[in-house]
Design goal:
Chains A, B: GO terms for molecular function: DNA binding; DNA-binding transcription factor activity. Chains A, B: This is Transcription factor FapR. The structure is a homodimer of 190-residue chains. Chain A has 190 residues and is an alpha+beta fold. Helix content of chain A is 36%, strand content 31%. A six-stranded antiparallel sheet of chain A has the order 1-2-4-5-6-3, covered by helices on one side. The A-B interface holds A 21-22, 52, 55-56, 58-63, 65-66, 69, 73, 75, 96, 101-102, 104, 106-108, 111-112, 115-116, 119, 125-126, 128-136, 138-139, 190 and B 21-22, 52, 55-56, 58-63, 65-66, 69-70, 75, 96, 99, 101-102, 104, 106-108, 111-112, 115-116, 119, 125-126, 128-136, 138-139, 190. The structure holds a DNA duplex (30 and 30 nucleotides).
DNA sequence: CTGATGTTAGTACCAACTACTAAATGAGGT
DNA sequence: ACCTCATTTAGTAGTTGGTACTAACATCAG
């Protein structure tokens, strides 16, 4: 028997549609070997919108993501800043940031938070990282809220020295010392 | 006169549609105060597909992006590896990786390439970054192909020392020394 | 005034639906 | 075997946002 019972079919339908939102009722009716009307009834019962609405939804969602991605110029959200002095940012560890195995955040995200905070705190048109000494003291896990604080120690001869400390619930998880290279507007070299 | 000439209108149309792909011909015809037919003719001449096709396109494009984002587990593509000894990876600098202003790659992408290479080269179930000293010698720019080489210097007492050098066309742009913490399977501690 | 260019109007048709009515088919329970 | 309720299928009318096509205006330039 190729056909499923109502319950089974509806469960599979949810799965099918959520993995591939581009399926028409016709294609679905072929897949489950039932009539189009049955599929429509199922969608009605399950509150699954029609193809076009599903696509529209995906498209909208994703255009939003693009916006937030280009905002993600800075990793983490800056919550306090006094230019050339100090800055604070918050970074929440999400699914994309962790090793699946153990839910520990990849080191380079903590680094990225610190690094982009350093770029942000310097009030000059160009600021590039020159060097860094960093330490990962404790792993950050999925869901953790990491607060990073950057303090500019000195700025001299186009080089700024910045120390960064990142904490989760007051506990130090990361620290680093960054040297940033910066220049004013007209200036440029290699 | 609220109405535009054909040329102007068509240019604006392209802009409108590309910034908001969700506009129907009807809405557009209202915006430009012309008939729907005129809009349709314009789209025909400009090869702009209809609303539904535009949305579908956006949706598809973005579902692809999600896939490639989750693939971005490792930054850069590993091109050679001998576990616990050395590894090589290639990272091509793309639009998302650079400052828009000057097309220079954000430092944390170079770091991420090096860091994930260090994670990859260690043949143990768990490998976390403990510390790093890094130097950014020359900026990497949009389109650059960065080859990163990690060499394991020693592995002792759950700590591995690894040196990384990243080059663009034989020229050193980044180097670093990483300390990685690792453990075998059953083991675990905070 | 005449043509070319541009703009509108209108028709037939399409995909992928919704909303609704009605008939056919099960599958169970007694 | 018969009745019943759930399920499935069929079919119609109407919707949105179009394509494709024909035909009738407008407008302006030479």
């Amino acid at each position: 028997m190729a056909k499923y019972k109502k319950r089974e079919r509806q469960e599979l339908l949810i799965e099918k549609v959520s993995t591939d939102p581009f399926l028409t009722d016709e294609r679905l009716s072929e897949m489950f070997e039932v009539s189009i009307q049955t599929i429509r009834l199922d969608r009605l019962e399950l509150n699954i919108p029609e193809l076009r609405e599903r696509i529209k939804h995906v498209a909208r969602e994703e255009t939003d993501k693009i916006r937030s991605l280009s905002l993600q110029e800075v990793v983490g959200e800056i919550i306090d800043i006094e230019l050339n002095h100090h800055a604070l940012s918050l970074f929440i560890v999400e699914e994309g940031h962790v090793f699946r195995k153990n839910q520990i955040a990849r080191g380079h995200y903590l680094f990225a938070q610190a690094n982009s905070l350093c770029v942000a705190v310097i009030d000059e048109p160009l600021a590039l990282t020159k060097s860094a000494q960093i330490e990962f003291i404790k792993p950050a896990k999925l869901g953790d809220k990491v607060i990073s604080k950057a303090v500019v120690e000195k700025m001299e001869g186009r080089i700024a020295a910045i120390t960064v400390e990142s904490k989760i619930e007051q506990r130090l998880v990361f620290k680093g010392r960054f040297e940033m290279y910066y220049t004013g507007e007209g200036e440029k070299n290699g």
